[in-house]
């Protein structure tokens, strides 16, 4: 299962970019956030290989229809 997260980078001008990441299963939220961060970093590098930010801005994780941060949408 996956969810779509958005992020922005003020250094290179990326704004609210969609990235598909694995949905959080039973793992701890901090473990899942590390995984999500790797996906965002890899996506950013593909889109803007010469930009080397120390952080991304406006990371948006969908919460509608789920019971936990990063969780899949429940039907």
Structural commentary:
This protein is of the alpha+beta class and 75 residues long. The chain has one domain. 25% of the residues lie in helices and 28% in strands. It has one helix and three strands. It has a three-stranded antiparallel β-sheet with strand order 2-1-3, covered by helices on one side. A hairpin with a 4-residue loop joins β1 (2-9) and β2. The longest helix is centred in the middle third of the chain and has 19 residues, at 29-47. The model has no long low-confidence stretch (mean pLDDT 94).
Layout of secondary structure:
Blueprint: E1 2-9, E2 14-22, H1 29-47, E3 57-60
Antiparallel strand pairs: 1-2, 1-3
Helix content: 25-40%
SS strand fraction: 25-35%
Strand order, biggest sheet? 2-1-3
- The global form is elongated
Number of domains: 1
Largest sheet: 3 strands, antiparallel
H/E element order: EEHE
Mean pLDDT: 94
Task: Tell me how many strands there are.
Answer: 3
**Span of the ends, CA to CA:** 13 Å
Structural class: alpha+beta
The residue ranges in which pLDDT falls below 50 over 5 or more consecutive positions are none
Helical segment tally? 1
Radius of gyration: 13 Å
Summarize the structure.
The protein is of the alpha+beta class and 75 residues long.
